[in-house]
Design brief:
Blueprint (H helix, E strand, L loop, with lengths): L21 H18 L10 H21 L13 H31 L3 H14 L5 H13 L3 H17 L6 H27 L20 H12 L10 E9 L5 E8 L5 E5 L9 H10 L5 H14 L8 E6 L1 H16 L5 E6 L5 H10 L14 E5 L14 E5 L11 H13 L4 H18 L1 H9 L11 E6 L3 H14 L15 H9 L4 E2 L10 E2 L5 H10 L2 H4 L3 E5 L4 H6 L1 H10 E4 L10 E4 L6 E2 L2 E2 L4 H10 L6 E6 L2
Parallel strand pairs: 3-4, 4-5, 5-6, 6-7
Antiparallel strand pairs: 1-2, 2-3, 7-8, 8-9, 10-13, 11-16, 12-13, 14-15
Helix pairs in contact: 1-2, 1-3, 2-3, 3-4, 4-5, 5-6, 5-7, 6-7, 8-15
Length: 649
């Protein structure tokens, strides 16, 4: 047998040879590339046939692992006895191979899951969790999701119960409280999905006229599409991954203001979306300069360029068409500013923004209009036609006051901090040289890692894609009543989260006996969200709706109005009825109702849906949800929709 050694420096002076597998290093670089492009989205581009490439690596790695177990270390010119150094090297090599194989199966499983090949993904996940005895929380969650997507309720339920018991007894894991919080949410969702499937199989829903059904069959872009289009703004090469969206135009002013925006259109519905790019570390630092302008409450040049880009395209389309805007971080601020201007000054133009981890622009709007001496009474923050998704509180999304409907996501837990070779050297040097500061350095690095994780668009997209549903919404979302603003409130929030061992920054399932105490503590740093039970429809406080919508809702959602002996006369001159039709309007009125809430929210009036009253067309439930209704009531006036109420008795 001939043994090739590609690196002669690996021949030991005593004659032994460590077979360092260059193939492993090459394959690891390939996996790094696939993960960065396909999953982390930290690099721009596409990776063709990524699953097939990983399959080839898997086949090679399996053979190499078998070779190692039987022959690897024996195939060397070695002294009569193994030295301690040889045994140590052997264990290090073996662990390195196993670590790479675990990563390979994990990466391949996540890609299969993304492609909705849930059964194949489960095989990869179970191999990592079982044969390789990994304690990967992310894979444990994805195993639950995959069983649910396959409709295997008993297996999903068994997995959740097993993991709940595991983390309830694992007191050494500092993340146990957060993991248990998510598992309890998932437990409720699994139960809800199972009940819904049984109900759909057993019941025959009331058929309705299909003339008005288009609105609830995904006529508008879904929110997961907005998130993915925000990602396209960072990397145009990702647009082909969204086959129903086609390129219209783009504005590339990166060399001057740093702005980049892209306009796309849905091939079937013809809806148009403007996606605005967020901060990138470009050569001329234009994005960072724009961020600085936002920090000092000035309007960056990027806002002006984006307005010009939007106006140029608006001149070419039907003025009655809704223009949608989206973006992440700085791009979210741009999208919100454009829609805020339309709301205040161009009220005949219909525009709406769905944004992700915006810095909050209410103070920026006020300062801008004061500086320009524009006389206009600013609306209240919740009057704007915007839905703003926020990750966990972080240094970006706590910069200012948010406008529109603000929703909190439940992002995945950050992975452990890892260092590259160079960073590891710096870390070892500083912690060795200044041992008294090691604890402070570790806390700083950990918090920086978490902050970047919470704000990352890939993390936000995973909230939508990890457990997809027919509405294109995240599985867990919570309306925001209060959100920390500024460094002081953010630090106070982080301190409380650390004190209560809430590494996911999610307090909804904290120990029930201390719930009120904990919530009151968090309110002191201006944090309060509506904790919707995961197995129930979303509830929105009445005060989150605009003033005209509030007045209309108070009329239609009262006990007298719901009586069967009451006739409601609707006006055909109503803007909303003109858009969706009178039959659809009747459906909306019929399914909305009040929800009683406890003192936790100061007796706020809450609105939710009666899902059992949602009709069915051609065997499929209407794709209607609270956020769709919110967008309708934001875009169209409802103040003249109800003409009169007649009591027939």
């Amino acid at each position: 047998m001939v043994l090739y050694v590609q690196n002669s420096s690996l021949i030991r002076p005593r004659g032994s040879i460590i077979m360092w597998c260059d193939e492993l290093s090459t394959s690891e670089a390939l996996m790094d590339n696939i993960q960065a492009i396909e999953l982390d989205m930290s690099q721009c581009g596409q990776y063709d046939n990524s699953i097939e490439k990983l399959t080839e690596i898997k086949d090679r790695f399996y053979n190499e692992e078998a070779l190692y177990k039987h022959e690897w270390y024996n195939l060397q010119i070695k002294p009569p006895m193994y030295s301690h150094e040889d045994n140590t090297s052997k264990m290090l090599i073996e662990e390195k191979i196993k670590r790479k194989i675990r990563r390979l199966y994990t990466l391949r499983g996540l890609l299969l899951y993304r492609d909705r090949k849930y059964q194949e993904a489960l095989e990869e996940f179970n191999k990592v969790l079982g044969e390789y005895n990994s304690n990967d929380v992310q894979l444990e969650f994805y195993t639950i999701f995959a069983y649910d997507m396959l409709g295997e309720y008993s297996k999903a339920n068994f997995s959740i119960e097993k993991y709940i018991e595991k983390y309830r007894t694992d007191t050494k894991n500092i993340q146990s409280q957060s993991i248990l919080a998510k598992l309890n949410d998932y437990y409720a969702i699994i139960r809800k999905n199972h009940d819904k499937r049984l109900r759909q199989e057993a019941e025959k829903y009331r058929e309705v006229n299909s003339a008005s059904s288009k609105l609830f069959m995904n006529m508008w872009p879904t929110h997961i599409e907005f998130a993915e289009l925000s990602n396209v703004a960072y990397c145009k090469l990702r647009l082909p991954l969204l086959p129903l969206w086609t390129f219209i135009d783009e504005c590339n002013d990166i060399q001057h203001s740093g702005y980049y925006g892209i306009a796309v259109q849905h091939t079937e519905t013809k809806e148009i979306v403007f996606a605005h790019r967020g901060t990138v570390f470009d050569v001329n630092n234009a994005s960072l300069i724009a961020d600085y302008h936002l920090f000092i409450l000035q309007i960056p040049d990027q806002f002006r360029v984006a307005q010009q880009f939007t106006n140029k395209l608006r001149e070419k389309i039907d003025p009655k068409q809704i223009l949608w805007h989206t973006g992440h971080s700085l791009g979210a601020a741009i999208a919100e500013f454009l829609v805020a201007n339309d709301t205040l000054f161009e009220q005949k133009l219909l525009s709406f923004a769905v944004t992700f981890d915006s810095p909050g622009i209410m103070e920026i709007l006020k300062a801008h209009y004061d500086r320009k001496m524009i006389k206009h009474d600013l609306l209240k923050p919740d009057e704007f036609r915007i839905i703003s998704y926020l990750s966990a509180p972080n240094i970006i999304n706590t910069m200012g006051t948010h406008i529109g409907l603000v929703l909190s996501l439940s992002p995945p837990l950050p992975l452990a901090v890892t260092y590259g070779p160079l960073a590891k050297r710096f870390y070892d040097y500083f912690t060795t040289s200044f041992q008294q500061f090691k604890g402070i350095i570790d806390i700083f690095v950990e918090q920086l890692h978490k902050q970047l994780h919470w704000h990352n668009l890939g993390t936000i997209i995973e909230c939508f894609k990890a457990w997809p549903n027919e509405n294109g919404l995240p599985t867990i979302i919570k309306p925001v009543i209060k959100w920390p603003k500024g460094p002081q409130e953010l630090v106070g929030f982080i301190h409380l989260a650390y004190e209560h061992n809430l590494t996911s920054l999610d307090i909804s399932w904290y120990a029930q006996n201390d719930m009120d105490k904990v919530l009151n503590a968090f309110e002191k740093c201006n944090y309060n969200v509506v904790h919707n039970p995961a197995d129930l429809p979303m509830v929105l406080p009445l005060t989150f709706w605009n003033r005209k919508a509030q007045s209309f809702l108070k009329q239609i959602i009262n006990d007298d109005f719901k009586k069967t002996n009451v006739t409601k006369q609707l006006s055909l001159d109503c803007e909303l009825i003109k858009f969706i039709g009178i039959e659809t309007m009747k459906i909306i009125i019929n399914i909305l109702y009040w929800k009683e809430e406890t003192h936790r929210y100061n007796n706020m009036e809450m609105i939710t849906l009666n899902e059992s009253a949602i009709p069915n067309h051609n065997g499929k439930m209407y794709n209607i949800n609270m956020l769709t209704i919110f967008k309708l009531f934001s875009l169209f006036d409802v103040d003249n929709c109800l003409v009169k109420i007649i009591d027939e008795f």
